[in-house]
Design a protein that fits this description.
2 copies of one chain form a homodimer. By secondary structure, chain A is mostly helical. Chain A has helices at about 10-25, 35-40, 45-50, 55-75, 85-95, 100-105, 110-135, 145-165, 170-185. The first copy, chain A, has 2 domains: about 1-50, Orthogonal Bundle (Arc Repressor Mutant, subunit A), CATH 1.10.10.60; about 60-185, Orthogonal Bundle (Tetracycline Repressor, domain 2), CATH 1.10.357. Chain A is elongated. Chain A binds a DNA duplex (30 and 30 nucleotides) through helix 3.
DNA sequence: CTAATATGATACATAGTTGTCTCATATTCT
DNA sequence: AGAATATGAGACAACTATGTATCATATTAG
């Protein structure tokens, strides 16, 4: 959003645009600016007023999603709790944000900030896995990278199940926790 | 491939096109016919000679990938073996076909044949899960749809790990099997 | 070798998307 | 109420991807 010097954006306009964009991109990657404008109930010119590029919009959206995920995870980060409890808390708050998660895996990450935010997220999960190992909640001979990948994937699977109305968010989080702890032991 | 009545296609030309298309689509969904032609080392006109549409190309490609996956899975389908062994055999042959698997999840499935091929695949996995339950290899209170989703996801995770040179195909298959059996128990 | 034909290169028309600009209207702020 | 300004609608140009047609060349088959 590099054009905000020329025009302020109204909060509900911004939200409508970003919400619509997330929704559309999650359904189909070949989304046009016109599609987004229509879905947001906003004039097409308004998009170009506030976003220099389509890339600019995507990057803004990526940053937003990444921040929401990071914030949700950080909120569960209570150092004194055992790792299993922290994992469960993380799953419970991350799974409902599956659309944000999905967006981040669909679009390529450009920009230094975004990249470092992603690495922070990765480091956080890696640290959690290692703590789970020291607490003997999971096996030490499982490669950490495998465990981290499993955590990411299970969030995605859980969100999909919730999305398909096969599970409630809590059921999904419980199943995800159980699948991870057993699966990596 | 509805235009083959007018022009025969040379086998190596077809293979070059399909290989390039799979490779490019797996890296980025916004692939143009020009990109595919260049990557295949083939004239752009040749693509339009043999594929009525871009959709036609994608559909042909989807069908090809689906067939390869089905064939690989069917080859492991030895009814007399225990379900655990069949699962392991399936993982070992499916994981190296991760690019085919990826293509199928990226592109929307159109066409009746493709849809029924997909359902056949889904039914196969569902049956395997239920057999694993009767053999008490996994817990019966785990929703079958969750287990099926886990199988699909773990193939993807395993392939990614192999792709990143973090694991060998055999290591990945073993880890995948272990993760599934423990995770769903 | 020779005929048939699949391919490559190029030019071309078409359609869709992007991005800019302008002006009237609606919204917000004082 | 009145001023400032964000928005919507539309016209516009530039660019890109798609798809067609043609002809010379390379490949294959008989």
């Amino acid at each position: 959003m590099s054009k905000e010097s020329r025009h302020a954006i109204r909060p509900r306009t911004l939200e409508a645009i970003l919400d619509a964009a997330i929704r559309l991109f999650n359904a189909d990657s070949g989304v046009t600016m016109t599609d987004i404008a229509k879905a947001a109930g906003v004039g097409r010119a308004t998009l170009h007023r506030h976003f220099q590029d389509k890339d600019d919009l995507i990057q803004t959206l990526s940053a937003r999603c990444m921040e929401e995920m990071n914030a949700a995870v950080r909120a569960t980060d209570i150092p004194d709790e055992p790792a299993v409890k922290r994992l469960h808390a993380m799953l419970k708050s991350a799974i409902p944000l599956g659309d944000r998660f999905a967006f981040l895996s669909f679009e390529r990450m450009e920009g230094e900030d975004l990249q470092s935010d992603y690495e922070e997220q990765l480091d956080w999960t890696t640290a959690l896995i290692e703590q789970l190992k020291t607490e003997q909640a999971i096996a030490t001979d499982v490669p950490t990278s495998w465990a981290v990948a499993q955590v990411d994937q299970v969030i995605w699977t859980a969100w999909t199940a919730v999305w398909n109305s096969e599970l409630t968010p809590d059921e999904a989080a419980n199943l995800a926790l159980r699948t991870l702890l057993n699966g990596l032991s």
